[in-house]
Design a protein that fits this description.
This protein is an alpha+beta fold. It has 15 helices and 18 strands. The chain has helices at about 10-20, 35-40, 45, 90-100, 145-150, 155-160, 160-185, 225-230, 270-290, 310-320, 330-340, 350-360, 415-430, 440-445, 460-470, and strands at about 50-65, 65-75, 75-85, 105-115, 120-130, 185-190, 195, 205-210, 215-220, 235-245, 255-265, 295, 300, 310, 370-375, 390-400, 405-410, 455-460. The two termini are about 15 Å apart. The relative contact order is 0.10.
C-alpha cells in the first residue's frame, strides 16, 4: 500500500457493502431539531414529544430485538432506545448490523424517562450520517498517551468530558472579557499580524518572506505599537484579542503561538489599568466561575478585590532577599546568582538578571492576584518613567497562581525619549541580544503627532485559562498546541 493511501482493502470493502445494502455512508444533509443539552434541560416540556437529533455513537448495547446506545450530541451525552417493533426492517438492520460505536447518526423519536430515571429518546427512525473508518479508543482506558491527546485533539474531545468542559470554559472566559470591555466603552479592532518591523515586547520573532515585495516580514510579537497609533488617531479606548508569536522555547507555561488581549486607554495610566484588570477578573469570576476561590497547583487562590499591590523592589527584598538596585553591580549579581544556583543563558545585564530572579524567587510566592509595580527602565523600553530622572518606570505585572498573566504600562509618549530608548535597544541588539526591541522609525513619526497620556494593558489569555480551569500545562488549554512534526 502506498504511503499516501491510508485505506486498506477491508475498509474499502466495508464501505462497498454498506452502499450495496442501500445505505449512503455520507449523505449530504440532515436537519436536527434539538441538541441533547436542550432535551435534558427541557424534559418537562418535551416529554412524549418527537425530536430529531444527531450525534456520535459512543456506546451501544443491542441484544436481540432491543437495546440502548448513547449519542454525543453537541458535546452532551444522551441515551437513545432501539426497539425492533418501532422500526422498519431496513432501519433495524442498519441499527443492528451497520451502526457501530464511533459512527455519526441522526435519529427521530419520542422523549421519555426510563424506570431508572434516565432521560431517553425512543427511536422511530435512524439515518447513518457518517461512517467512522477508525475505531475510537477503548472507553475505560481512554487516551493515555499525552502526545496523542494533543496531536489528535478531536479524539481527546470525543472521549474526555473534562477536556470539552475546559474549552467550553475558555470560550466563556474570552466572551466575558469582551463583554466587560464593551461595557467599559472599549472598541474592538484588528491590527496586522504580519509586520515589517516587530515590536511591543522584548522577544525573538518568527521571520518569513513576502515574494511579491521581495521583503522579509515578521509574525507579530505584540499588537502594541499599532494599537497606540489608533490612540494617536483619536480612538480613545481600543482593544484587540488575537494571536501573537514568539520564537522561544516550549514549556508548560509557554507556547510559540499564544492568544493575547491588549487594550489602550487615552488619559489613563498604570493605576487605571489596575482598575480595569480587577474588573476583567471580577467579570470572569461572577459570570463564569461563580465563586470567589479556586484551587491551582495545590494552592487556594482568592479572587476577591482589591488585589494586593507591591513594589517590585519590596518583593525582591521580601521573597528573594536581595537589593534589586545592587544587582546592577555585575560582581554582586554574580555572587547572588551563584549562591542561589540561578543560571542565566542570556547576557548578564540588569534587565535579564532582574527578570530571571523575578521568575525563580518572587513569582512562586504569589498565588493570590498581586500587582507588582515600578520596574527597572531597561526592562520596559515602552513605559513612562516615574519621574524625569528616574531609573524606574510606571509598569506593573499581574501575578496570579505564581504566573504572570497581565502586564501594563503608563505608556511612553515623549518621542525624543522613545527614540533614545530604541537606540539603546538597537545597540543591545548589535551586541547579540536577539530579544532587544527593534528601532521603529514609523512609530516615532506617529509619536511626533502627539500620543495623549495613555494606559496600556496586556492579558495572556492562555495562562488565565490555565489557572481558572486548573490546567497544569498550557497545552491543555490550546486546542492545537505546537508539536514536533511526526514522520510518516
Amino acid at each position: 500500500m502506498s504511503e499516501h493511501n491510508l485505506f486498506d482493502a477491508d475498509t474499502l470493502q466495508l464501505l462497498d457493502e454498506v452502499r450495496e445494502e442501500g445505505y449512503d455512508p455520507y449523505p449530504p444533509k440532515y436537519f436536527p431539531t434539538h441538541q441533547a443539552a436542550a432535551i435534558l434541560s427541557q424534559f418537562s416540556d418535551l416529554e412524549n414529544t418527537s425530536v430529531t437529533i444527531a450525534g456520535r455513537v459512543i456506546t451501544k448495547r443491542l441484544h436481540g430485538k432491543a437495546g440502548f446506545a448513547h449519542l454525543l450530541s453537541g458535546g452532551t451525552k444522551i441515551q437513545i432506545y432501539f426497539r425492533k417493533d418501532n422500526l422498519d426492517e431496513d432501519t433495524f438492520h442498519l441499527v443492528k448490523k451497520r451502526v457501530n460505536v464511533g459512527d455519526i447518526i441522526g435519529i427521530t423519536g419520542d422523549v421519555f424517562k426510563t424506570h431508572t430515571g434516565e432521560i431517553t429518546v425512543s427511536v422511530s427512525a435512524c439515518t447513518l450520517l457518517s461512517k467512522a473508518l477508525s475505531p475510537l479508543p477503548e472507553k475505560f482506558h481512554g487516551i493515555e498517551n499525552v502526545e496523542v491527546r494533543y496531536r489528535q485533539r478531536y479524539l481527546d474531545l470525543i472521549m474526555n468530558e473534562d477536556v470539552r468542559k475546559t474549552f467550553q470554559m475558555r470560550s466563556a472566559i474570552v466572551r466575558s472579557i469582551r463583554e466587560t470591555l464593551h461595557h467599559e466603552g472599549y472598541m474592538e479592532v484588528e491590527t496586522p499580524t504580519l509586520q515589517d518591523i516587530y515590536g511591543g515586547a522584548l522577544a525573538k520573532p518568527f521571520t518569513t518572506h513576502h515574494n511579491a515585495l521581495d521583503q522579509d516580514f515578521y509574525l507579530r510579537i505584540a499588537p502594541e505599537l499599532y494599537l497606540k497609533r489608533l490612540i494617536i488617531g483619536g480612538f480613545d479606548k481600543v482593544f484587540e484579542i488575537g494571536k501573537a508569536y514568539r520564537n522561544e522555547g516550549i514549556s508548560v507555561n509557554h507556547n510559540p503561538e499564544f492568544t493575547l488581549m491588549e487594550l489602550y486607554e487615552a488619559y489613563g495610566n498604570y493605576e487605571t489599568m489596575m482598575e480595569i484588570s480587577e474588573k476583567l477578573i471580577m467579570g470572569i469570576r461572577d459570570s463564569v466561575l461563580q465563586k470567589d476561590t479556586i484551587e491551582y497547583r495545590g494552592k487556594t487562590i482568592n479572587l476577591s478585590v482589591p488585589f494586593r499591590k507591591m513594589r517590585l523592589a519590596d518583593a525582591f527584598e521580601e521573597f528573594a532577599h536581595v537589593d534589586i538596585v545592587k544587582l546592577q553591580d555585575e560582581q554582586y549579581a554574580k555572587e547572588y546568582l551563584k549562591k542561589e544556583k540561578i543560571h542565566i543563558d542570556k547576557s548578564l545585564c540588569w534587565a535579564n538578571i532582574v527578570d530571571e530572579i523575578l521568575k525563580k524567587k518572587v513569582e512562586p510566592h504569589l498565588s493570590n492576584p498581586t500587582f507588582l509595580y515600578e520596574y527597572p527602565l531597561p526592562l520596559s523600553p515602552l513605559a513612562k518613567k516615574t519621574s524625569l530622572q528616574s531609573q524606574w518606570v510606571e509598569r506593573f505585572q499581574l501575578i496570579m497562581g505564581s504566573l504572570e498573566v497581565g502586564n501594563a504600562f503608563t505608556e511612553l509618549n515623549d518621542p525624543v525619549d522613545q527614540q533614545d530608548r530604541f537606540l539603546a535597544q538597537n545597540e543591545a541588539k548589535q551586541h547579540g541580544d536577539e530579544e532587544a526591541h527593534s528601532f521603529d522609525r514609523s512609530y516615532i513619526e506617529a509619536l511626533k503627532f502627539g500620543l495623549p497620556p495613555t494606559g496600556g494593558l496586556g492579558f495572556g489569555i492562555d495562562r488565565i485559562v490555565m489557572i481558572l480551569t486548573g490546567s497544569e500545562s498550557i497545552r491543555d488549554v490550546l486546542l492545537f498546541p505546537q508539536l514536533r512534526r511526526r514522520e510518516p
